[in-house]
């Protein structure tokens, strides 16, 4: 399953998201969701400990000026790679 976080983690149900992530899942943060990757935020430790592969949309990270403050546990990808993730996963959940 592909889980996409589009809103700030501070206004999303991250605890529910965390219970749903499985090893075969991919997690992608875009728009304000990229804030989940900020170093020292309260959600970072839990998302890193998940077994899912973690992605961020590079353009959204740079648009918010946080590229120097994100965890290296996330893979920066383009919107083109995002499309490939949607093709890979028939099931998707948007948060």
TrEMBL record:
Function text: Part of a sulfur-relay system required for 2-thiolation of 5-methylaminomethyl-2-thiouridine (mnm(5)s(2)U) at tRNA wobble positions.
Record text on subunit structure and interactions: Heterohexamer, formed by a dimer of trimers. The hexameric TusBCD complex contains 2 copies each of TusB, TusC and TusD. The TusBCD complex interacts with TusE.
Subcellular location per the Swiss-Prot or TrEMBL entry: Cytoplasm
Domain of life assignment: Bacteria
MF term (GO), any: transferase activity
GO biological process: tRNA wobble position uridine thiolation
Xref: SUPFAM superfamilies: DsrEFH-like
GO cellular component, one term: sulfurtransferase complex
Listed name of the protein: Protein TusB
Similarity field: Belongs to the DsrH/TusB family.
Keyword tags: Cytoplasm, Transferase, tRNA processing
One Pfam family hit: DsrH
HAMAP family recorded: Thiourid_synth_B
